[in-house]
Specification:
alpha+beta, single chain, 6 strands
Length: about 160
């Protein structure tokens, strides 16, 4: 697919999505994305600017249902989501949620992603993924959807 010269780049679109948030949430999201990209350099990063949140999902290929980890941005915080998290071993009880599949961890800061307990959970999620990440190559970022109607992105 060829992009028209006047179409904004993926980076420009992401910058516009992030601009809706406070500078603090923007900074945490940028840092968290960088950490996840380094952890999964071959993953496809799928971006959804949905009604409830801006989401960056990390997927082995092009099927959103195979996502391993994602970041969800809310007005006051960023949450790390384990899309196949119910199957993870969590001896310290960090994971939140009781559904059949997804678990999450609200981040106090992107630095949380570098703590041994969270690093261990992320590595476990990658190892146990339904579909493994490609062993070689470089991932790309793809804008998957943008909702016309959205909740406020900044605290009231």
């Amino acid at each position: 697919m060829t992009r028209a010269a006047s179409s904004p780049s993926v980076d420009d679109q992401i910058a516009a999505f992030l601009a809706k948030y406070t500078p603090e949430v923007q900074a945490e999201a940028r840092a968290a994305r960088q950490i996840l990209r380094a952890l999964m350099p071959t993953a496809t990063e799928m971006v959804y600017d949905n009604y409830n949140a801006l989401v960056f999902g990390f997927v082995p290929g092009d099927r959103p249902s195979e996502a391993i980890l994602s970041l969800a941005l809310f007005p006051r915080w960023v949450t790390l989501c384990f899309l196949q998290g119910a199957a993870l071993t969590d001896p310290t009880g960090l994971l939140r949620g009781s559904g059949r599949t997804v678990r999450s961890i609200p981040l106090k800061s992107s630095a949380d992603l570098k703590t041994p307990k969270i690093q261990s959970l992320m590595e476990q999620a990658i190892r146990q993924a339904k579909v493994p990440l490609p062993e070689t190559g470089r991932g790309q970022t793809v804008i998957k959807s943008v909702s016309a109607k959205q909740r406020p992105r900044r605290p009231r």
